[in-house]
Automatic annotation (TrEMBL):
Entry keyword set: Iron, Metal-binding, Oxidoreductase
InterPro entries: DIOX_N, IPNS-like_FE2OG_OXY, IPNS-like_sf, Oxoglu/Fe-dep_dioxygenase_dom
The family this protein is said to belong to: Belongs to the iron/ascorbate-dependent oxidoreductase family.
UniProt organism field: Lupinus albus (White lupine)
GO MF annotation: an example: metal ion binding
The protein's name in its UniProt record: Putative aminocyclopropanecarboxylate oxidase
Limits of the Fe2OG dioxygenase domain: 181-286
Gene3D superfamilies hit by this protein: B-lactam Antibiotic, Isopenicillin N Synthase, Chain (2.60.120.330)
Length: 332
């Protein structure tokens, strides 16, 4: 198929900036971040405050969920609010180049809002789908603690991003932005398949993330690749090495849009190498009623806003609809 042929073999590992969140020299961190955000849109953060032991526990609990029998996992199938289990091949991120969906299964956990709370009427808010506590004891508590700790890390990164964009450090802490964020944890398990781009087979197809920032924790199995210039022909893909105890952070499309393309959201994908692989992604998104319009520091007479303003919930709902299978296919 002609469409699979515009690719060079990945020959190198990407060298990403590493930002130490415990570094008292904020200017140094901001400089490193700004360089990363204008170059690859990817960087590592270390000393982020979540302990190694706790991250090991989150990975262990994730593995327990994915090793349940398929019929048990299907009882936890994702709902219209994007909570719960996503089966193998459910997600198709790169329809132009993929012949089937991604060779991964996932599990979505969002902001917990009870059914009787008026807030639960909003997209992406509502009760989570939790495995029964007798099946996976302590699972829910571990994941809720992770959600809370990851939010603190995400807010710390957002403060550095604000400074790098010449905004007030607390710009993103406003109530409508990260005061009541749409924050989504996604547990991922990649099959022990070997990906083959020439055949349209991927662990995760090439895509950019939708939102503000993503924090990604991985095991030590290689798989993530980035393409700094999505328009290059052939595309050049670089491996991103796992780094124990670090989060790999990348910027989403919404931050690219917000910053008028000053910062970039970078194309990335996962290629399987025959080993199982586990990762945990935390997507930090602004609140539903956040109106995303060009940041004041990112426009000028010679560089006017490239995108119209949009409410965040409208934007995100459409992006999810575009990439996931219709839930009706699972009804028998």
């Amino acid at each position: 198929m002609e469409k699979h042929s515009t690719e060079a073999k990945p020959t190198q590992s990407s060298v990403l900036n590493c930002i130490d969140l415990s570094n008292p020299d904020t200017n140094e961190s901001v400089t490193l971040l700004k360089q990363a955000c204008t170059d690859s849109g990817f960087f590592y953060i270390v000393n982020h405050g979540i302990s190694h032991d706790f991250m090991d526990e989150v990975f262990a609990q994730s593995k327990k969920l994915f090793t349940l029998p398929l019929d048990q996992k299907m009882k936890l199938l994702r709902n219209e609010k994007h909570r719960g289990y996503t089966p193998l091949l459910d997600e198709l991120l790169d329809p132009q180049n993929q012949v089937v969906g991604d060779y991964k299964e996932g599990y979505y956990i969002g902001v917990e809002v009870t059914e009787d709370d008026p807030e639960s009427q909003k997209p992406f808010y509502g009760p989570n789908v939790w495995p029964a506590s007798d099946v996976l004891p302590g699972w829910k508590e571990t994941m809720e603690k992770f959600q809370q700790e990851a939010l603190d890390v995400g807010k710390a990164v957002a403060r550095l991003i604000a400074l790098a964009l010449d905004l007030d450090a607390n710009f993103f802490d406003k109530p409508e932005i990260l005061g009541e964020p749409i924050a989504i944890t996604r547990l991922l398990h990649y099959e022990d398949k070997i990906s083959d781009p020439s055949q349209g087979l991927y662990g995760a197809g090439a895509h950019t993330d939708y939102g503000l920032i993503t924090l990604l924790a991985t095991d030590d199995v290689q798989g993530l690749q980035i393409c700094k210039d999505r328009n290059a022909k052939p595309q050049i893909w670089e491996n991103v090495a796992p780094l124990k105890g670090a989060f790999i952070v990348n910027l989403g499309d919404m931050l690219e849009r917000w910053s008028n393309c000053v910062f970039k959201s970078t194309l990335h994908r996962v290629l399987g190498n025959g080993q199982e692989r586990y990762s945990i992604a935390y997507f930090l998104e602004p609140g539903h009623d956040c109106l995303v319009e060009c940041l004041p520091t990112c426009k000028s007479d010679t560089n006017p806003p490239k995108f119209p303003p949009i409410y965040y919930q409208d934007y995100l709902s459409q992006r999810y609809k575009d990439t996931h299978a219709d839930l009706h296919i699972y009804k028998h």
